[in-house]
């Protein structure tokens, strides 16, 4: 379920590194918690983001979730499909519903993030808390 | 007490069921020292008859039955008792905000119709379910322009209603918004040369009213042409929306703020009224206030719901587009019913009557020695005159004849003493106009 | 409780308050429109007609309003009457909505608001012919001052949220006059959403403070939060759980010690009128919601009015105009107030709403205490009769409202929203579901004093029945409502592809009507 080559944050974002390009999205766990996504607000191309800073929001009918950028960089692309079809985030959060691409300032920033198995363990803990 | 549906024995039963001896025990959590021992010092209790008497006495102390030539943002227009009867139905009057859509389809359908009518009138794409009034609608429009452009300077025509500008100033002060006043020319319209000098590249918006406070129509296409290339927006405000029956809609404006009082809402000494906010589709997510949207249920039946709620305070809290919650729903409904009764032909006819009567009054007044028209720009139902003596003195004399006179501009425009804005609507009869002109003539003939 | 019904059959529960009945269908008014029809006529023109293109100039003239409805009077009457029958209303029964105070809207208030000589008055007309209006405002001010124990008032704000903003602006102006407006306002996590939104518009920063384990202000640790840059604490009392903050005097003292002020959101005043006065327990500034405590009609979402009551120290900062009585007994609007925060709206306020609130207050007089007692009695009666079935997250005594949670029913997959929807089938409006935020799965219930014992008992029966259904037939509750004109509406589609206005025939029809 969670691609091995991605890295994950505690706030349920993922980042995939390809040389100096980072692709960022939210995880399947996040989309499930949110419910049906109705709108996504993304930064403009050229925006400079810092690790931990806000990169935008994802909205469901009754809630707004801020998305935090896992790594630092300049925005090179935003996903054009999401403006008209925000539901893609529910359908395919790890692939076609990527949010932004960045030119990374420092690829080593991913070292502090969780790998797939660590993330799976993390959300397993969270699920236990919820049903407690 | 007639509003309380419990007998003493029922109260007793309920206290027993709760397991307390007296109702005092239910207030234990209020510290002893704060609990009132004596009844409050309040007038009453009054029976229904006495309440009516009190208010009838107050009504007798006002201007009941007076004629009026006063506009200035609040207008005497035709109203229908049919609309008033419908608005008093308990299911409209005493219903709550339509958060539970399944049992609020009446309210939601009517809001959808109101939104549609406001779009049709203003030529904009979307309109919300109402704001408090025109003054706060304009203020919120400016705040919207600030959010949309990221700029904090606004160029505001002095010919925008003075009280609207005061409200804007109160809100703007703490939001880092700088207001630059733009003057008017001898046509009474916004001074475009002053706009050019005012560094539009830093401005979030040009703000103009049309018809403006002097009654004059602004040339909005030219203002849009100045604003848009500089990345600024055009925000327009309309206090007399009956004008839209005969004046072209402000389609060049990016955001339109309007006061809907003229659509069947009584003047009622200042409120409640109904604010309107309308804008282009691309700006909808920055728009404050409630929005009713069309959708379906699982069986495919059409229905309406409050939508795009993530803009609002109950979800976004400190990041909301506005703090507005309760708005003016019942008066939006009243305006909707009124406009449906009036209809396309009725609105046009009403607007034509306003045009005609205002021009008749102007012609009659200009015959009086010493009275002359100020501002040459086109007008709808209000125009500005200069008088040979203080407007306040003339109005005092008119009042003795049970006529409320025109609005003295000197109150808010120190350079415009002895000038007043005269308003004439379809409710002003020819006889009333002639009577007022004769009175003014008599007053001006008296020695000072 | 029998649970043999399937999802599509009429529910098997015994529903005493309501029965299904034929209700008229109706489309949109635009769908009835046809050229040549009209619903209102105006008297013939008695002056020469003018040509708009000539009078205004061609570039200003408009042909007509495209798409505007053309219907007859009877069609309008039927249209809106039919629409009205699709609504629930106080006139039909209880709204158990917490924090909304949905009480009876007396009809005499509607009558007096419409009197010729009151409804007809122009806000800019001379003061000498407005004495009746001004006295109404002045008398209302006096009543509200009496009820709240404060010193001065403004009636200008159009709603509670605007009242909050006005109060905050006055706090800022006062602190500025003392040399430093400061930066932050403390807001408990149980606060209504308008509170933080208003703080931001006043140019302050929101600092959220966590409620303690009882759901109240953490008074023990409050001192740590009230730093020198804190301008005020905004609290609701009783709070949004319906519980009185008994340590309010301490809270006020902590704030005043540091030169900060106490703002009280007066939304829950229905628990206090005639019992206790905020001015006595340390509040510096507060607003009232006249469309809650003072019976003015909700009207489907407004109008309201949010008068702000202040202590003497804040009086110089009141918005203009201020309603005063001069020495000669005449009433007037005073504009010359150099320290005023300015105006928050045009003219002096929602006069029609203020007038209704005065009529309500005159009806009760000092007897207003009885209304408060009945409100608290009703809430506690309901609490007592439901606390065996629903989880009570905070056990402190309730005043005029009680907050349960859906924790027990959650085990069967039924949540607060589901039960709220099922309540519609029982002939009631839902209780408040999404608020306060500190109670996940909140069920906030406020009956008000307008409910008879009979209506309270019907509500209790309905809730007990729904609790049983949640146990035995959870799907029935999860797919509710079953007996309304439309079922649960697709809010996701409404938000993804908003359709916010009607457009003429060439638009694709989405679906057939109900």
Please provide a brief summary of the model.
The complex is a heterotrimer of chains A (132), B (448) and C (514). With 132 residues, chain A is of the alpha+beta class. Chain A has 3 helices and 9 strands; from the N terminus they run βββαβββββαβα.
Spell out the key features of this protein:
heterotrimer; B: 448 residues; alpha/beta; Aspartate Aminotransferase, domain 1; Aspartate Aminotransferase, domain 2; 2 domains; 7-stranded mixed beta sheet; 4-stranded antiparallel beta sheet; 13 helices; 36% helix; C: 514 residues; two-stranded antiparallel sheet; 9% strand; disordered N terminus; disordered C terminus
Q: Based on helices, strands and strand pairing, what is the structural class of chain C? A: alpha/beta
Instruction: Assign the CATH superfamily of chain A.
Output: RNA polymerase II/Efflux pump adaptor protein, barrel-sandwich hybrid domain
Oligomer kind: heterotrimer
Mean pLDDT of chain C: 94
What is the count of β-strands of chain C? 11
State the separation between the terminal residues of chain A, measured CA to CA: 25 Å
The unreliable regions of chain C are 1-11, 508-514
CATH topology-level fold name of chain A: OB fold (Dihydrolipoamide Acetyltransferase, E2P)
Characterise this structure.
The complex is a heterotrimer of chains A (132), B (448) and C (514). Chain A is α+β, with helices and mostly antiparallel strands and 132 residues long. Chain A has one domain: OB fold (Dihydrolipoamide Acetyltransferase, E2P) (Beta Barrel). Chain A is 20% helix and 32% strand. Chain A is built from three helices and nine strands; from the N terminus they run βββαβββββαβα. The mean pLDDT of chain A is 92. Chain B is globular. Chain B has helices at 8-18, 48-60, 81-87, 90-93, 105-122, 134-149, 162-172, 192-197, 220-227, 313-316, 329-366, 391-400, 430-445, and strands at 67-68, 126-127, 153-157, 178-182, 203-209, 233-238, 255-259, 275-279, 292-296, 302-306, 372-374, 382-386, 403-404, 407-408, 419-423. Chain B has a seven-stranded mixed beta sheet, with helices on both faces. Chain B has a four-stranded antiparallel beta sheet with strand order 11-12-15-14. In chain B, α3 (81-87) packs antiparallel against α11 (329-366). Chain B has two domains: 67-78 and 343-445, Alpha-Beta Complex (Aspartate Aminotransferase, domain 1), CATH 3.90.1150; 81-338, Aspartate Aminotransferase, domain 2 (3-Layer(aba) Sandwich), CATH 3.40.640. Chain B starts with 7 loop residues before the first helix and ends with a helix. Chain B is α/β, with parallel strands linked by helices and 448 residues long. Chain C has helices at 52-56, 73-84, 107-113, 131-148, 160-177, 194-201, 219-225, 248-257, 351-364, 368-386, 407-410, 416-425, 453-472, 474-478, 491-496, and strands spanning 152-154, 184-188, 205-209, 230-236, 261-265, 285-287, 308-310, 322-325, 331-334, 402-405, 442-445. Chain C has 514 residues and is of the alpha/beta class. Chain C contains 15 helices and eleven strands. In chain C, 32% of the residues lie in helices and 9% in strands. In chain C, the strands form three sheets. Chain C has a seven-stranded mixed beta sheet, sandwiched between helices. Chain C has a two-stranded antiparallel sheet with strand order 8-9. In chain C, strands 10-11 form a two-stranded antiparallel ribbon. Chain C is globular. In chain C, α8 links the parallel β4 and β5 (261-265). Chain C starts with 51 loop residues before the first helix and ends in an 18-residue tail after the last helix. At the B-C interface, α1, α2, α3, α4 and α5 of B face α1, α2, α3, α4 and α5 of C.
């Amino acid at each position: 379920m969670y691609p091995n080559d991605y890295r994950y944050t505690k706030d349920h974002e993922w980042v995939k590194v390809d040389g100096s390009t980072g692709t960022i999205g939210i995880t399947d766990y996040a989309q499930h918690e949110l419910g049906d996504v109705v709108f996504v607000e993304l930064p403009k191309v050229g925006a400079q983001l810092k690790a931990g800073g806000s990169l935008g929001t994802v909205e469901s009918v009754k809630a707004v979730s801020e998305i935090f950028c896992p790594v630092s960089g300049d925005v090179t692309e935003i996903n054009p499909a999401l403006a008209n079809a925000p539901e893609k985030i529910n359908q395919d959060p790890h692939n076609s519903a990527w949010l932004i691409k960045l030119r990374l300032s420092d690829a080593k920033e991913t070292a502090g993030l969780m790998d797939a198995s660590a993330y799976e363990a993390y959300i397993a803990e969270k699920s236990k808390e919820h049903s407690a | 007490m007639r509003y309380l549906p419990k007998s003493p024995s029922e109260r007793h039963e309920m206290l027993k069921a709760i397991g307390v001896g007296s109702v005092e025990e239910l207030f234990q959590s209020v510290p002893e020292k704060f609990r009132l021992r004596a009844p409050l010092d309040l007038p009453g209790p009054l029976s229904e008859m006495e309440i009516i008497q009190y208010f009838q006495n107050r009504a007798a102390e006002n201007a009941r039955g007076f004629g009026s030539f006063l506009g200035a943002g609040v207008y005497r227009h035709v109203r229908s008792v049919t609309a008033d009867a419908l608005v008093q139905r308990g299911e409209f009057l005493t219903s709550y905000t339509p958060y539970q859509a399944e049992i609020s389809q009446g309210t939601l359908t009517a809001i959808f119709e109101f939104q549609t009518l406001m779009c049709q009138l203003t030529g904009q794409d979307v309109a919300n379910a109402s704001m408090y009034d025109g003054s706060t609608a304009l203020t919120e429009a400016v705040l919207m322009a600030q959010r949309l452009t990221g700029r904090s300077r606004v160029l505001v025509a002095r010919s925008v209603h003075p009280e609207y500008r005061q409200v804007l100033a109160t809100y703007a002060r703490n939001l880092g918004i700088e207001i630059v006043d733009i003057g008017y020319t001898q046509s009474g319209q916004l001074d475009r040369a002053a706009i050019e000098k005012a560094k539009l590249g830093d401005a979030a918006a040009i703000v103009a009213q049309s018809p403006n406070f002097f009654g004059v129509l602004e040339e909005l296409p030219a203002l849009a042409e100045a604003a848009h290339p500089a990345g600024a927006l055009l925000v327009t405000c309309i206090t007399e929306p009956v004008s839209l029956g005969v004046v072209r809609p402000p389609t060049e404006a990016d955001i339109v703020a309007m006061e809907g009082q003229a659509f069947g809402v009584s003047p009622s000494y200042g409120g409640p009224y109904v604010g309107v906010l309308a804008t282009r589709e691309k700006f909808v997510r920055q728009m404050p206030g409630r929005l009713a949207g069309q959708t379906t249920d699982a069986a495919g039946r059409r229905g309406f719901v409050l939508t795009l709620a993530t803009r609002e305070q109950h979800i976004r809290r400190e990041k909301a587009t506005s703090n507005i919650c309760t708005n003016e729903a019942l008066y939006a409904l009243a305006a909707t019913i009124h406009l449906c009764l009036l209809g396309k032909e009725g609105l046009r006819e009403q607007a034509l009557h306003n045009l005609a009567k205002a021009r008749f009054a102007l012609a009659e007044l200009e015959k009086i020695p010493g009275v002359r028209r100020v501002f040459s720009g086109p007008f709808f139902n209000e125009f500005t005159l200069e008088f040979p003596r203080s407007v306040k003195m003339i109005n005092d004399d008119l009042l003795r004849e049970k006529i409320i006179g025109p609005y003295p501009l000197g109150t808010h425009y120190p350079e415009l003493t002895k000038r007043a804005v005269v308003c004439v609507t379809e409710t002003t009869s020819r006889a009333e106009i002639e009577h007022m002109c004769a009175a003014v003539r008599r007053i001006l003939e008296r020695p000072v | 409780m029998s649970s043999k019904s399937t999802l599509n059959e009429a529910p098997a529960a015994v529903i005493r308050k309501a029965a299904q009945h034929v209700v008229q269908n109706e489309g949109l008014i635009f769908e009835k429109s046809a050229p040549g029809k009209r619903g209102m006529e105006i008297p013939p023109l008695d002056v020469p007609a003018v040509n708009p293109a000539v009078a205004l100039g061609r570039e200003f003239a408009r042909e007509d309003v495209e798409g505007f409805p053309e219907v007859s009077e009877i069609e309008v009457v039927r249209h809106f009457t039919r629409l009205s029958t699709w609504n629930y209303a106080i006139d039909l029964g209880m709204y158990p909505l917490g924090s909304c105070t949905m009480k009876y809207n007396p009809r005499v208030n509607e009558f007096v608001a419409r009197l010729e000589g009151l409804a007809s008055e122009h806000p800019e007309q001379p003061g000498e012919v407005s004495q009746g209006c001004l006295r109404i405002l002045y008398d209302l001010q006096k009543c509200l001052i009496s009820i709240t124990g404060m010193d001065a008032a403004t009636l200008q704000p159009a709603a509670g949220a605007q009242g909050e903003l006005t109060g905050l602006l006055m706090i800022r102006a006062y602190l500025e006059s003392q040399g430093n407006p400061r930066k932050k306002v403390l807001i408990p996590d149980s606060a209504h959403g308008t509170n933080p939104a208003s703080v931001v518009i006043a140019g302050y920063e929101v600092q959220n403070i966590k409620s303690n384990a009882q759901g109240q202000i953490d008074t023990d640790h409050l001192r740590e939060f009230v730093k020198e840059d804190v301008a005020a604490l905004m609290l609701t009392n009783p709070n949004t759980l319906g519980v009185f903050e008994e340590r309010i005097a301490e809270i006020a003292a902590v704030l005043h010690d540091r030169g900060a002020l106490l703002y009280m959101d007066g939304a829950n005043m229905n628990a206090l009128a005639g019992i206790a006065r905020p001015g006595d327990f340390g509040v510096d500034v507060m607003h009232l919601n006249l469309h809650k405590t003072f019976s003015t009609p909700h009207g489907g979402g407004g109008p309201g009015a949010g008068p702000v009551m202040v202590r003497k120290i804040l009086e110089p900062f009141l918005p203009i105009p201020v309603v005063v009585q001069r020495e000669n007994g005449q009433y007037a609007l005073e504009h010359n107030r150099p320290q005023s925060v300015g105006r928050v709206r045009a003219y002096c306020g929602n006069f029609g709403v203020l007038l209704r609130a005065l009529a309500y207050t005159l009806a009760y007089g000092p007897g207003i205490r009885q209304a408060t007692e009945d409100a608290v009695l009703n809430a506690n009666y309901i609490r007592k009769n439901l606390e065996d079935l629903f989880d009570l997250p905070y056990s402190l005594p309730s005043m005029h409202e009680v907050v349960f949670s859906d924790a027990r029913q959650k085990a069967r997959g039924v949540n607060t929203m589901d039960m709220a929807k099922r309540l519609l089938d029982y002939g009631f409006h839902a209780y408040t579901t999404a608020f306060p935020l500190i109670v996940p799965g909140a069920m906030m219930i406020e009956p008000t004093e307008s409910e008879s014992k009979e209506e309270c008992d019907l509500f209790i029966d309905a809730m007990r029945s729904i609790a049983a259904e949640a146990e035995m037939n959870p799907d029935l509750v999860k797919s509710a409502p079953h007996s309304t004109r439309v079922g649960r509406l697709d809010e996701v589609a409404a938000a993804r592809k908003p359709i916010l206005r009607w457009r003429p025939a060439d638009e694709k029809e989405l679906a057939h009507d109900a």
